[in-house]
Write a structure and sequence with these properties.
Layout: H1 4-22, H2 31-38, H3 67-74, H4 76-84, H5 87-95, H6 157-161, H7 207-210, H8 223-227, H9 257-260, H10 274-277, H11 291-295, H12 325-328, H13 342-345, H14 359-362, H15 410-413, H16 426-430, H17 460-463, H18 477-480, H19 495-499
């Protein structure tokens, strides 16, 4: 008795041959192809549509075991992965030998997805690229731009990150040397493996500050090539920055001027910057070692005191002068001279022109006497004060000071300062005090004395030829002295000279009024 399966085979064969007899034009192929065409389960996907009538491309008649081989013959890349146990298919085949159709079924229609990839459950660790870091959370399409080419993306970072490559491929394709999958930035390049290990402040500097324009090959190692823009010396100190600076602290100078040069830095010079003295190129331009070489512009003497600044000034304090005029010269400074500036006396070249020691030589323009008193100023003036304490014995002159005159200052009488030009007459000084307006001449001393100008005394009876008696006694001086007098007073001594207008006789009795009248009263008649 035949089993069920052989019976079905015989039945299937009989049907095939019956159809072939009665339907001769059903297929023009050989009998095997006509038989397979009758049992086709459905349409192929679009990718396989060209094989719709070429079943032998994928099927070996009545031998499913050879179907996998036909798939791999067509899909050479996958076949190569399986042989090398590489990629997703290679890793799966290494674990278990699967048939292709166990995952990828066909004849389900043109639009059927025979890959059946579940992005959420897909185990990427079975591929050649295990997902780590940020790669775990990014969508599949970020790397697999086309769904049908999941196996195509390469494993090098640059293949996906070429647009993110700030180095413009100048660092090569081994991005993993600096970057990690957890975070593209910051980078973790180990600079210690190069011939320029990063120390101190260099550790915190961004790559782009030294590797400008992504230049990593032949990057200069000399400080100056990176720091020339920060070079406060402007190239004047050369390019060997390390001779003075270090990468631990740029502002700390290691250069020892006292040890490394012939010029020791002392006192105020220690506070100076290099450029204060080294204005030119420190290696090409010779820096002077004497004061005047640097301080010529500060020389308030304008070169008149020579170039040996150290004779007077010190490095500790430039304004404080150490020169002792009393010890170092034959002219000791006393009184007001101690407070004077050097150029007050030394107006010419100190070493070429001899400075005079006489007062008049320096005080020529202060001499209000216009040279009348000679060169011996010390007779009247002293160094403590030129004008406050003037010592002069006026009694040796033609005008000794009497009365209130000693209380006056020289300027009260000698306003011009030209003492010899002054007149000794009282009127010369007291013109403004002359209430007589020259009616009594300029001989003030006839009435006034030096004690007090307002105290006066004049004896008309003894000092003139016309004694005052009668009504004349007690008259105001101006009653008779009515007109200004230039030299001597010349007034008439007879009555008619003053009383002509009082003559009631109209001159008929002559001018001898005294023969009838008296000085006691003009009205009294006393004929003599």
């Amino acid at each position: 008795m035949l089993t069920l399966f052989p019976r079905l085979v015989l039945l299937f064969s009989a049907i095939v041959f019956s159809i072939a007899i009665f339907v001769p034009n059903a297929y023009a192929q050989d009998p095997i192809q006509r038989m397979e065409g009758l049992v086709k389960p459905g349409d192929l996907i679009k990718g396989h549509a060209r094989f719709e009538k070429k079943c032998e491309k994928c099927h070996e008649p009545f031998d499913k075991t050879k179907q996998k081989k036909l798939c791999r013959d067509c899909h050479e890349e996958i076949d190569n992965d399986i042989k090398k146990e590489s990629g997703f298919h290679g890793h799966i085949h290494a674990i278990e030998d699967r048939e292709c159709h166990s995952c990828h079924t066909e004849h389900k229609g043109r639009d059927m997805d025979i890959v059946q990839l579940d992005e959420e459950t897909f185990d990427h660790d079975r591929t050649n690229f295990k997902l780590r870091g940020n790669h775990v959370s990014i969508p599949c399409k970020s790397c697999h731009k086309k769904e049908r080419f999941y196996r195509l993306p390469k494993h090098n970072c640059i293949n996906c990150h070429e647009q993110d490559d700030a180095h413009k491929n100048s660092m090569g394709n081994k991005c993993e040397n600096c970057h990690i999958e957890s975070a593209w930035m910051p980078s973790y390049f180990n600079h210690a493996k190069t011939d320029f290990p990063l120390r101190y402040n260099h550790k915190n500097v961004g790559c782009q500050y030294c590797h400008v324009n992504e230049r990593y090959k032949d990057t200069p190692k000399n400080c100056y090539f990176c720091h020339y823009l920060s070079d406060v010396h402007e190239g004047d100190h050369g390019i060997k920055c390390h001779e003075c600076h270090n990468d631990e602290r740029w502002s700390r100078i290691e250069f020892d001027h006292d040890e490394d040069t012939d010029y020791k830095i002392k006192d105020a010079h220690k506070r100076l910057l290099c450029k204060n003295c080294h204005e030119g190129n420190v290696f090409e331009d010779e820096t002077p070692s004497h004061c005047y070489g640097c301080h010529e512009a500060h020389d308030t003497h304008h070169g008149l005191y020579g170039k040996k600044c150290g004779d007077c000034h010190t490095e500790k304090e430039w304004k404080k002068v150490k020169f002792d005029h009393d010890v170092d010269t034959a002219f000791k400074l006393k009184g007001e001279h101690k407070e004077l500036q050097c150029n007050a006396c030394h107006k010419g070249h100190l070493f070429k022109e001899k400075t005079p020691q006489k007062c008049s030589a320096c005080h020529k323009f202060d001499d209000v006497h216009d040279g009348q008193e000679g060169d011996n100023c010390a007779q009247c003036h002293e160094e403590k004060s030129w004008i406050k304490k003037v010592v002069f014995d006026h009694d040796i002159t033609k005008f000794p000071l009497l009365g209130s005159h000693p209380l006056l200052t020289c300027e009260d009488c000698h306003a011009s300062g030209k003492y010899k030009d002054e007149e000794i007459m009282c009127y010369a000084c007291h013109k403004k005090d002359d209430v007589h307006k020259l009616k009594l001449t300029k001989q003030c001393e006839l009435c006034h004395g030096p004690l007090d100008w307002l105290v006066w005394n004049f004896d008309h009876d003894n000092q003139t030829d016309y004694p005052l008696d009668g009504a004349h006694d007690g008259l105001d001086c101006h009653a008779c002295h009515k007109d200004p007098v230039e030299d001597e007073i010349e007034l008439p001594t007879n009555c008619f000279g003053c009383h002509e207008k009082d003559d009631n006789h109209n001159g008929q009795l002559g001018k001898q009024c005294g023969k009838c009248h008296t000085t006691k009263s003009f009205k009294d008649i006393e004929i003599k």
